[in-house]
């Protein structure tokens, strides 16, 4: 059976491939090989540029271009060649090294540098930088732009719905009103914090040999400051240098990265569930398309499937990331291989999140607020004003204010007339009575509308 969107085992490459196929440029096996080939070539170029320090022959820029072209022209045929070599070596990085040596051997001027391919490197010197670049590119090119789209919706919705009063629900029970805009602003502020945090997380790399001490480097060139060379090489990729490692970069930054990402995802799950609830309460209607079907048997339905899809995929993504956060910082002594297969699933964790982000963006585009239903629910719950009334009573030192409002409202159907009759009997200034009588469930929203103006 030929592999395609219908025959793929994972829905990432099957059902949801339209949302994830651009990730293949970062996380596919082909792309992983290309990232690692780039690191090998850049390290060889670094060695060549150190020709005076290492007392080796210099070469012309045309040969540097020859090396660059190996990377630029890297194609699926080359990738297959590496995989065929790996069948013999049973070692992926050694297969990559042999492939690169074979390519370089076609240039006579580069032949003297053949033994400097993968010079003093352990496999993890190559792998850790490749993963760092993959994560950096995924963050900058895909994750942050999608987060920004979600944040843009939330910010716009905050202002769009700032005056749409909302009956709040605490413990699932009617509570002090807010506005739909303020509730959107709450999510905007929370997610925006994670956006700025993810943007600032340092992505680390190391290039220091088999146990992090430049043993082989110094055996060959004992007078060279390899520690400084390592730093120069790492920062040249636009990532940060980790000077203290074992054989592996310890992956702490990946834990920080996924910690931030999974928190954003949890906030988004919270948002999905709230919107799902508001749709259920008919606070939001969903724009329908004639061709779309909500239920295979109930023609009237428009299900909130985008928010449900988003919630489910966020859960899958977080499950993978949580495992990685627990696993990756731990390695037996100077190195074990249990992190290798886990790291290969970073793209899978990203994929489920990206499916979820696209789903929630699709869902938000279909939302249309139902102001009539919002007002109806508010007008059916005059008892929420008991909070305001008993607080004013306390201001005027009326004893047992809370208990008196409890006796009036608890477990009873309260109308506007009941509230006004209670207010009229209060021993408070007339002006305060008039002010309280002007309150209604729809305008008892505090500063909900005003404080939205402070969001950035």
Automatic annotation (TrEMBL):
The keyword NADP does not apply. It comes from the Bacteria. Residues 331-445 form the Adenylosuccinate lyase PurB C-terminal domain. Its EC number is 4.3.2.2. One of its GO terms (molecular function) is (S)-2-(5-amino-1-(5-phospho-D-ribosyl)imidazole-4-carboxamido) succinate lyase (fumarate-forming) activity. Pfam families: ASL_C, Lyase_1. One of its GO terms (biological process) is 'de novo' AMP biosynthetic process. Keywords: Lyase, Purine biosynthesis. It catalyses: (2S)-2-[5-amino-1-(5-phospho-beta-D-ribosyl)imidazole-4-carboxamido]succinate = 5-amino-1-(5-phospho-beta-D-ribosyl)imidazole-4-carboxamide + fumarate; N(6)-(1,2-dicarboxyethyl)-AMP = fumarate + AMP. Residues 14-312 form the Fumarate lyase N-terminal domain. Pathway: Purine metabolism; IMP biosynthesis via de novo pathway; 5-amino-1-(5-phospho-D-ribosyl)imidazole-4-carboxamide from 5-amino-1-(5-phospho-D-ribosyl)imidazole-4-carboxylate: step 2/2; Purine metabolism; AMP biosynthesis via de novo pathway; AMP from IMP: step 2/2. The keyword Lyase applies. Catalyzes two reactions in de novo purine nucleotide biosynthesis. Catalyzes the breakdown of 5-aminoimidazole- (N-succinylocarboxamide) ribotide (SAICAR or 2-[5-amino-1-(5-phospho-beta-D-ribosyl)imidazole-4-carboxamido]succinate) to 5-aminoimidazole-4-carboxamide ribotide (AICAR or 5-amino-1-(5-phospho-beta-D-ribosyl)imidazole-4-carboxamide) and fumarate, and of adenylosuccinate (ADS or N(6)-(1,2-dicarboxyethyl)-AMP) to adenosine monophosphate (AMP) and fumarate. Homotetramer. Residues from neighboring subunits contribute catalytic and substrate-binding residues to each active site. PANTHER family: ADENYLOSUCCINATE LYASE. This is Adenylosuccinate lyase.
């Amino acid at each position: 059976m030929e592999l395609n969107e219908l025959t793929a085992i994972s829905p990432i490459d099957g059902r949801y491939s339209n949302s994830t196929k651009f990730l293949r440029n970062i996380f596919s096996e082909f792309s992983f090989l290309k990232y690692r080939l780039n690191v090998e070539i850049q390290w060889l170029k670094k060695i060549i540029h150190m020709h005076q320090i290492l007392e080796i022959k210099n070469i012309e820029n045309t040969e540097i271009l020859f090396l660059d072209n190996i990377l630029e022209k890297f194609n699926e045929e080359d990738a297959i060649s590496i995989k065929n070599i790996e069948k013999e070596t049973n070692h992926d990085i050694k297969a990559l090294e042999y492939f690169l040596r074979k390519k370089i051997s076609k240039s006579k001027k580069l032949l003297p540098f053949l033994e400097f391919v993968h010079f003093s490197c352990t496999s993890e010197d190559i792998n850790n930088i490749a993963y760092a670049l993959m994560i950096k590119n995924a963050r900058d090119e895909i994750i942050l732009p999608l987060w920004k789209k979600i944040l843009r919706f939330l910010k716009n919705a905050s202002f769009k719905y700032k005056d749409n009063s909302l009956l709040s629900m605490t413990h699932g029970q009617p509570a002090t009103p807010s506005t739909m805009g303020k509730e959107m602003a709450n999510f905007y502020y929370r997610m925006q914090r994670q956006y700025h945090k993810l943007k600032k997380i340092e992505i680390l790399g190391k290039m220091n040999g088999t146990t992090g001490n430049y043993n082989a480097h110094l055996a060959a060139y004992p007078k060279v400051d390899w520690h400084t060379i390592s730093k120069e090489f790492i920062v040249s990729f636009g990532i940060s240098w980790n000077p203290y490692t074992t054989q592996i970069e310890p992956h702490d930054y990946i834990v920080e990265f996924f910690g931030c990402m999974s928190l954003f995802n949890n906030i988004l799950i919270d948002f999905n569930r709230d919107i799902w609830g508001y749709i259920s309460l008919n606070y939001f209607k969903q724009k329908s398309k004639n061709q779309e079907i909500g239920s295979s048997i109930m023609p009237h339905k428009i299900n909130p499937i985008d928010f449900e899809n988003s919630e489910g995929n966020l859960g899958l993504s977080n499950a993978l990331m949580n495992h990685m956060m627990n696993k990756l910082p731990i390695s037996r002594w100077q190195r074990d291989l249990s992190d290798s297969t886990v790291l290969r699933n970073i793209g899978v964790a990203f994929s489920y999140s990206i499916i979820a982000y696209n789903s929630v963006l699709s869902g938000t585009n279909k939302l249309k607020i139902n102001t009539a239903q919002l007002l109806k629910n508010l007008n059916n719950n005059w008892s929420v004003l008991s909070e305001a009334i008993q607080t004013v009573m306390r201001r005027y030192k009326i004893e047992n204010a809370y208990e008196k409002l409890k006796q009036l409202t608890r477990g009873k159907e309260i109308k506007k007339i009941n509230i006004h009759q209670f207010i009229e009997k209060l021993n408070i200034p007339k002006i305060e009575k008039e002010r309280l009588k002007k309150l209604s469930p729809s305008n008892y929203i505090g500063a909900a509308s005003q404080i939205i103006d402070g969001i950035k």
